[in-house]
């Protein structure tokens, strides 16, 4: 499933790229101007709800309206997010430089001086936000979207977080017809270019050539195994699945592979519940808004408490609920599934 995508406004670079990948056939429905709601505390009791608004200026102006007296902190947050956005361009240029030159810029510590992205990449979201304001509710609202990338505010890079804030400044969109339309309109473009797409063909292992380079994958098709060869192999299964489950045993044992594995730790998992309802969007009062619901203001503390809880205590310490209705976001839903949500 998909919850929402930013930067899909007409004329944006992201929209142009997606249109190329889908031959311009994928249509996007805009979400309301208020696309996210951050709920802090019990929504039935003394909890408070804060709204996130689309628009480069509106986003921050409406935050100031909800947090009177915090204009300076919100302005500084805006400046930091903006500077990181500019720094991303420099990061792209860095990747195109000869390796020795990129290495020199990094080793000489010149890069953080010229590139705000690099300067803020080593500072955590929690550290930066805590330095902006003592207001616990504003800290939470400036950090709420960490759920989308799934790393605790005390461990997340502020630059990573800023990329996401920038991504949604102009608002949010949902693919008309549902998430499946993305694949449906991308596959013909891949095939037209001479590629192919296989469904229900799980990868069993990565194939290596005599030099130990990845040269293909073995997939299961029905009861048979099929080897597919290609000049470049890209895995999006995560480093642990890729190295520990898909690489042959001899490659897995290599010191280079093991040293990379020791540099990373497992991320936190999420649990998704899909609920089918009888009744239309209008009858049930469903809105095309994403609700980020936290039992309190200390997002990092609540996450840590939950992760440190025993199996028995964990259910009483749930730190967050993300509640959304994709059927309410899709203008074609009622036509395709009348009276359901």
UniProtKB/TrEMBL annotation:
Q: Where in the cell is it found?
A: Endoplasmic reticulum membrane
Cite the EC number: 1.3.99.23
Name the species this protein comes from: Oxylabes madagascariensis (white-throated Oxylabes)
UniProt keywords (A-Z) are: Endoplasmic reticulum, FAD, Flavoprotein, Lipid metabolism, Membrane, NAD, NADP, Oxidoreductase, Signal
Protein name per Swiss-Prot or TrEMBL: All-trans-retinol 13,14-reductase
| Gene3D superfamilies, sorted | FAD/NAD(P)-binding domain
Reading the lineage from the top rank, the first entry is Eukaryota
Topology class, membrane: Peripheral membrane protein
Which cofactors, by name? NADP(+); FAD; NAD(+)
């Amino acid at each position: 499933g998909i919850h929402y995508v930013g930067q899909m406004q007409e004329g944006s670079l992201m929209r142009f790229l997606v249109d190329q990948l889908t031959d311009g056939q994928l249509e996007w429905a805009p979400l309301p101007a208020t696309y996210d709601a951050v709920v802090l505390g019990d929504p039935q009791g003394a909890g408070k709800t804060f709204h996130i608004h689309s628009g480069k200026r509106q986003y921050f102006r409406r935050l100031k309206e909800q947090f009177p007296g915090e204009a300076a902190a919100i302005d500084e947050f805006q400046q930091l997010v903006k500077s990181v956005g500019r720094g991303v361009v420099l990061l792209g240029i860095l990747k195109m430089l000869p390796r020795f030159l990129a290495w020199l810029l990094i080793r000489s510590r010149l890069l953080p001086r010229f590139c705000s992205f690099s300067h803020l990449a080593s500072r955590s979201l929690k550290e930066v936000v805590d330095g902006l304001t003592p207001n616990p509710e504003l800290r939470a609202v400036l950090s709420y979207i960490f759920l989308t990338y799934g790393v605790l505010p005390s461990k997340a890079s502020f630059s990573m977080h800023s990329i996401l804030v920038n991504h949604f400044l102009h608002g949010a969109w949902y693919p008309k017809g549902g998430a499946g339309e993305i694949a449906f309109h991308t596959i013909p473009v891949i095939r037209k270019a001479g590629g192919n797409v296989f469904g229900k063909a799980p990868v069993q292992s990565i194939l290596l050539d005599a030099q130990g380079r990845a040269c293909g994958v073995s997939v299961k098709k029905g009861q048979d195994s099929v080897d597919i060869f290609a000049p470049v192999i890209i895995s999006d299964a995560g480093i642990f699945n890729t190295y520990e489950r898909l690489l042959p045993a001899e490659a897995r044992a290599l010191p280079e592979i093991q040293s990379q594995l020791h540099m990373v730790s497992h991320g936190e998992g999420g649990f998704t519940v899909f609920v089918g309802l009888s009744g239309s969007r209008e009858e049930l009062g469903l809105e095309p808004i994403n609700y980020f619901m936290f039992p309190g203001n200390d997002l990092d503390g609540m996450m840590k408490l939950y992760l440190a809880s025993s199996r028995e205590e964990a259910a009483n310490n749930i730190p967050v609920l993300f509640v959304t209705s994709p059927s309410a976001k899709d203008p074609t839903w009622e036509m395709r599934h009348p009276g359901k949500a």
